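FIELD: query
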Amino acid sequence: MVMRHLVLRYMTLLLVLALGLSLTACNEEKHSRVEPTVSTVNPQYDPKTGVKLDTRTLPPTSAHKAIYKPETEAVVVVGEVVDAWCYASQTMGAGHGPVHQACAVACVGGGVTPGILDDTGMLWLCVKHKAFTGCKEILFPFVARRVKVTGWAAHKGGCNVLKVEKVELVAPTSGAASSPAPGTGSGATEQPSSLKKNK
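FIELD: result
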């Protein structure tokens, strides 16, 4: 019985020693391992969009520049300032004209995207004014009124969007209260000579 007790004690001691050595080896391996370092890169910003470019994931190649090539054109759009949701969804009737003015003021004032409904019946979403701001402040005084907007247009996925540079009030047309028919009118967009291409 004593012998059995001694053997068990000896085996326990060997087990503890083996476990201790194994933990020490793991600890040394953990501390001797070289952690990968992340190189510090001075961030570069796209001058047109203000987006921070990470040169580690997008090397500055011709393909990289193609990603940020603007697809815009300088335009002048003439039409009524509407709230885009009511006009597009027709949830509040026609969604434009003097009858809809109170609703449009409430919607645009509350943050609904404003748009320009041009004479051809095309809705232009006014999504940007300066840097990182939308168009609510510049278009709010003109809601449900006829304006001439000078800016930059982009067309993607069936959407027509505008970056608004300047807004001017213009005289209403005789049929301003009626719904414009698509494809009719005198052509509500033109190329302004005062703006540079691809801003």
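FIELD: remark
The chain is about 30% helix and 25% strand.
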